[in-house]
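Hi V.,

You were right to ask for the full record rather than a summary. Here it is.
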Amino acid sequence: MQYLAKNGVPVSTPVKSSNGELIEKMDGFFVVAFQKGLGASWSDEISQNEEFNKLGEIAGRMHALAKKYVPSTAEITRYDWHENSYLQEFITYIPSSQSLVIAHFESLMQSIHKLSRDSENFGLIHGDFCFGNYTVQPNGGITVFDFDECQYGWFTQDISVNLFYGIAVPSPDEDVPTFVKRYLTSFLEGYEKENTIDIRLLRDLPLFINLRQAILYSALYRNGNIEALDGWSREFLKRARYNMENNISLVEPDDILNFIT
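Predicted structure:
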């Protein structure tokens, strides 16, 4: 995060303790503090398309910098994408009666493991680059935070997360194809100001959207008390289970290319 901040990425930077340390250990816990992100979860002063454009620009800069980033010590090297705890413990949290969901998950993981990786498409990513993890100021300034899921993964993963939350439970005011096209048009316009991306890699977006679906599905079951979930989460669980049991992708690879060409 310090590396990103020094190179112009608007992230919430860590604050030193009164002892001059970035990390303190207290009663068995590691304690950190960060500068507060200015603004709120959204601003009526800019349009959603402008917001997506700015997010694309930030993601593009993060990924361009990730290509050159080398950790100062092996001890702080982040984990690989598949070591995400929600994925590692998926089968633990999901009821065994959901055998088709589990089979879908295992097949999805196998498909992603087969994807090629090199310095142009794979590196250190935010891992949870979505609407809950940035603030927007009235002037359009954005501050990104919550790097808890920072991991080594495909840059396309970061592009997929906010897109996923826009289509996981579709809005009655906008169908999925319309939202996907609008999001990608604005996001990629900003992204390409800071980083280049092989357009063919975007055909992998559906896999990563499905991966985020599995992560959220796992998280809701891990948190327990399914009956007390809010309406959006209950609707998501119903839709996600149907999708996984029937191997239905939220969006198809060929559709992605049609949206952006």
